[in-house]
């Protein structure tokens, strides 16, 4: 179980205040599991974790094996909820530099359709030069502009390189089972498809093929990921403050009611950066509406202690922090002795790097709490495929409960349409004329 420590928030809120929220958390949790709240047609994610592999998961594994065998590069096309989850999973487990040295047998993984930058696109084209590659097109609606543009171009490249028939073997579509342009295209072209269930919104879709196919291509054990999520589903169903999900959801709501309107999610692992991005979308899109919501920000420590640290320590007191910790890996690094000791580091000689990291964490925690910032800490334990599944489910459930406590619909995102409407009008998209 993920251990949530809320002992460093008591300067700002009190235990009786937290306990007074019990009925509210209970009601929010029930609203979610009984499906009687706003957005209740988007609760399919609650039951995605399964004990044994589904037929879809077996097909995902087979597709992944094929891609691993015939591709130097696998390009994942998607944006928002159709992109952040798989990237978060792969970078957390394998590191930000996981692509270095990879090729056929264990392909490199790049992303497309997650923006409109020409520089990024040109770089991707250079990276694909002379490489065998396959693509996964991920879009629930099948009409999102950014991935649609990338799809058109990458599909044409594949068809030029391998012929229309050969390309079919390298194009995988992950989309709604019935609706949308991508579904129609995949059916007409005969591409292999995987499903995003209609009852699962983008930011809650990481445990569908959206996350699982790229993870499997990266060599992650998707059965272990699912088993971690399945255990989480049982573990975190508990209706009491012993449930760490309750602690996290309730404390962040209470802090928000006390004027702490910014949450910084911090990890001491650089590989956590994209997980932070996934969490940011999950909480930001779920809670930020009706003039309400905690603004989700992420930071990487210790790096950002040298940039954001000043603001956190002494800036406006409207923030709280959630610090995520993982156990160190079995392979430890040790600070060596140096006979000259010109850098004055010999006092650390023989100490492991994780020991130094641990003291940085403890020192930072104490400093920020002294500075008036409430800090929630999460001890994740060992980082592995199973833990990843648990982590995804933990945050999804916390978010659903937290958003219902806030009094908003956690499963819509009406605000996202505004930029699209303006952009379509400027682009002259038919139907969007003034
Ligand atoms: O969470 C969401 O719903 C969004 O971030 C979507 O995932 C994103 O806009 C991409 O949409 P689609 O999968 O329809 O292309």
Description:
By secondary structure, this protein is of the alpha/beta class. It is built from 15 helices and ten strands. A five-stranded mixed sheet has the order 1-10-9-7-8, sandwiched between helices. A five-stranded parallel sheet has the order 3-2-4-5-6, sandwiched between helices. Strand 5 (171-175), helix 7 (181-189) and strand 6 (192-195) form a beta-alpha-beta unit. The mean pLDDT is 97.
Helix content: 40-55%
Order of helices and strands: EHHHEHEHEHEHEHHHEHEHEHEHH
Distance, first to last CA: 54 Å
How large a portion of the residues is in β-strands, by DSSP E?
Answer: 5-15%
So how many helices?
A: 15
What composes the largest sheet? 5 strands, mixed
SSE layout and pairing:
Elements: E1 3-8, H1 15-19, H2 22-34, H3 55-70, E2 73-77, H4 84-94, E3 108-112, H5 118-128, E4 133-138, H6 145-168, E5 171-175, H7 181-189, E6 192-195, H8 209-217, H9 222-235, H10 244-257, E7 262-267, H11 273-287, E8 295-300, H12 309-314, E9 319-325, H13 353-370, E10 375-379, H14 385-406, H15 417-427
Parallel strand pairs: 2-3, 2-4, 4-5, 5-6, 7-8, 7-9, 9-10
Antiparallel strand pairs: 1-10
Bound molecules: 5-phosphoarabinonic acid.
């Amino acid at each position: 179980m993920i251990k949530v420590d809320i002992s460093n928030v008591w300067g700002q809120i009190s235990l009786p205040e937290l306990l007074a929220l019990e009925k509210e958390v209970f009601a929010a949790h029930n609203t979610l599991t009984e499906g009687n709240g706003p957005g209740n047609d988007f609760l399919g994610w609650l039951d995605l974790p399964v004990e044994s592999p589904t037929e879809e998961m077996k097909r995902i594994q087979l597709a992944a094996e094929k891609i691993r065998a015939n591709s130097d590069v696998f390009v994942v096309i998607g944006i928002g909820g159709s992109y952040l989850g798989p990237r978060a999973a792969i970078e957390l487990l394998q590191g930000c530099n996981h692509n270095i040295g990879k090729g056929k047998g264990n392909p490199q993984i790049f992303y497309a359709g997650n923006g409109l930058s020409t520089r990024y696109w040109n770089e991707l084209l250079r990276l694909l030069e002379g490489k065998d590659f396959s693509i996964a097109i991920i879009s629930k609606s099948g009409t999102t502009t950014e991935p649609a543009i990338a799809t058109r171009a990458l599909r044409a490249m594949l068809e030029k390189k391998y012929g229309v028939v050969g390309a079919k073997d390298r194009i995988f579509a992950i989309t709604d089972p019935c609706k949308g342009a991508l579904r129609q295209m995949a059916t007409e072209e005969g591409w292999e498809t995987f499903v995003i269930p209609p009852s699962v919104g983008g930011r809650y879709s990481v445990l569908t093929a959206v996350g699982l196919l790229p993870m499997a291509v990266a060599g992650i054990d998707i059965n272990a990921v699912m088993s971690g999520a399945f255990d989480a589903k049982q573990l975190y169903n508990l209706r009491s403050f012993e449930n760490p999900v309750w602690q996290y959801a309730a404390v962040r709501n209470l802090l928000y009611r006390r004027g702490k309107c910014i949450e910084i999610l911090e990890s001491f692992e650089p590989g956590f950066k994209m997980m932070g991005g996934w969490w940011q979308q999950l909480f930001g899109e779920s809670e930020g509406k009706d003039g309400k919501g905690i603004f989700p920000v992420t930071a990487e420590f210790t790096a950002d202690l040298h940039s954001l640290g000043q603001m956190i320590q002494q800036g406006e007191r409207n923030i709280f922090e959630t610090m995520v910790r993982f156990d160190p890996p079995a392979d430890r690094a040790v600070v060596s002795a140096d006979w000259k000791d010109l850098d004055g580091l010999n006092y650390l000689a023989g100490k492991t790097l994780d020991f130094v990291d641990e003291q940085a964490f403890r020192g930072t925690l104490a400093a920020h709490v002294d500075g008036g910032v409430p800090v929630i800490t999460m001890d994740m334990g060992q980082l592995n495929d199973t833990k990843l599944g648990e982590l995804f489910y933990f945050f999804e459930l916390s978010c659903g409960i937290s958003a219902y406590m806030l009094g908003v619909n956690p499963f819509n995102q009406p605000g996202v349409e505004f930029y699209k409407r303006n952009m379509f009008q400027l682009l002259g998209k038919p139907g969007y004329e003034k």
